């Protein structure tokens, strides 16, 4: 049994000026919630006057270890409308945590350790008016979260890692386009890519490219759930299908997603620059048979095998400048009949670039001598 509350009192609520008073449950400072699986077995405390648990409409937690919102609080405090969790190391805020409070209107969880907000986090709280998550560590947010609350008056995401916005106003008069735009640009979940669509050129031909923002692909065998885009180029009827370039620059893109081709099927140019890419295999690019330019400088690639370009014979430009190449198979360039430029400069086993077929032979010799 966890004795959850210290005392029930009537207070003037400073955070939300529209509400004059709350009956609140102040969690004991000795209470520690360290595990996500924690479930509350009882709530007790000293009630003021004739109040009961049913009168409690605010949960107050401050200055204690409270990493997770435990299950079954809502079973005992059935009328919670406000939650205040301040400087408690709160790590997670999920739909499963909040759905037990269907009457929730206000949540303050400032100065904690929150990093992720998924799309359904407030799905069970349709009456939300006030969200304050300032000074957390938010990195990944689904921008659609904040478009479904007709009663919203305040949204404070100031001083987070990927967003720094605060919007406040009367019900029905808040426009969240600005904060949603910043979230779309900078706060993607790990299996999402946001495309800032741009017009580029390749050998005199114009094409549309997806300039990835807020991208985080950290593991092998990741599948993308969606690719968002800014739709600035209104002349494109189907932006992703008509996109021919992918440009990832100084993002976290350590591995190719398995299903990238399902979202961007017609790429002819791929640039992944300074994004910690660890490896390149034939399966990563085999669906891009019309690929002409592959630019991967300043990454962490160490090995290249003979089959890596087996399906990309139309490649014309290729760069592995500034990677960590130690081993390269000698026949790696064999399938590339249209190759015009290749760079292996500033690698561990090789440091050379070439722009003609004679120098390509020199590169092959150096690979055999130094990188096998």
TrEMBL record:
Pfam families given in the database record: LRR_8
Keyword Hydrolase carried by entry: no
Keywords in alphabetical order: Leucine-rich repeat, Repeat, Signal
Superkingdom in the source lineage: Eukaryota
InterPro entries associated with the record: Leu-rich_rpt, LRR_dom_sf
Signal peptide range in chain numbering: 1-21
Stored PANTHER family: IG(IMMUNOGLOBULIN) AND LRR(LEUCINE RICH REPEAT) DOMAINS
Name of the protein described by the UniProt record: Uncharacterized protein
């Amino acid at each position: 049994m966890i004795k959850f509350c210290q005392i029930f009192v009537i207070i003037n609520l400073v955070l939300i000026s529209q509400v004059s008073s709350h009956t609140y449950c102040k969690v004991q400072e000795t209470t520690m919630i360290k595990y996500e699986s924690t479930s509350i077995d009882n709530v007790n405390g000293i009630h003021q006057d004739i109040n009961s648990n049913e009168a409690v409409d605010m949960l107050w937690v401050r200055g204690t270890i409270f990493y997770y919102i435990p299950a079954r609080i809502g079973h005992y405090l059935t009328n919670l409308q406000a939650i205040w969790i301040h400087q408690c190391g709160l790590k997670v805020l999920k739909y499963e945590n909040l759905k037990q409070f269907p009457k929730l209107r206000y949540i303050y969880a400032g100065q904690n350790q929150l990093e992720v907000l998924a799309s359904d986090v407030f799905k069970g709280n349709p009456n939300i008016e006030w969200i304050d998550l300032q000074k957390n560590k938010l990195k990944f947010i689904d921008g659609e979260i904040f478009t479904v609350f007709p009663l919203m008056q305040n949204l404070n995401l100031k001083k987070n890692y990927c967003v720094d916005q605060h919007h406040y106003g009367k019900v029905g008069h808040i426009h969240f386009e600005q904060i949603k735009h910043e979230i779309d640009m900078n706060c993607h979940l790990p299996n999402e890519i946001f495309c800032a669509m741009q017009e580029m050129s390749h050998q005199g031909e114009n094409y549309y490219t997806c300039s990835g923002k807020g991208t985080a692909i950290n593991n092998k065998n990741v599948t993308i759930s969606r690719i968002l885009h800014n739709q600035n180029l209104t002349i494109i009827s189907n932006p992703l299908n008509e996109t021919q370039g992918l440009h990832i620059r100084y993002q976290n893109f350590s591995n190719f997603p398995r299903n990238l081709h399902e979202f961007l099927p017609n790429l002819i140019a791929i640039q992944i620059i300074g994004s910690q890419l660890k490896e390149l295999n034939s399966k990563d690019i085999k669906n891009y048979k019309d690929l002409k330019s592959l630019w991967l400088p300043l990454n962490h690639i160490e090995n290249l095998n003979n089959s890596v370009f087996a399906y990309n014979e139309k490649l014309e430009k290729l760069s592995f400048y500034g990677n960590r190449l130690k081993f390269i198979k000698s026949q790696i360039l064999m399938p590339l009949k249209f190759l015009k430029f290749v760079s292996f400069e500033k690698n561990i086993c090789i440091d050379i670039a070439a722009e003609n077929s004679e120098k390509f032979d020199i590169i092959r010799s150096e690979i055999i001598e130094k990188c096998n």
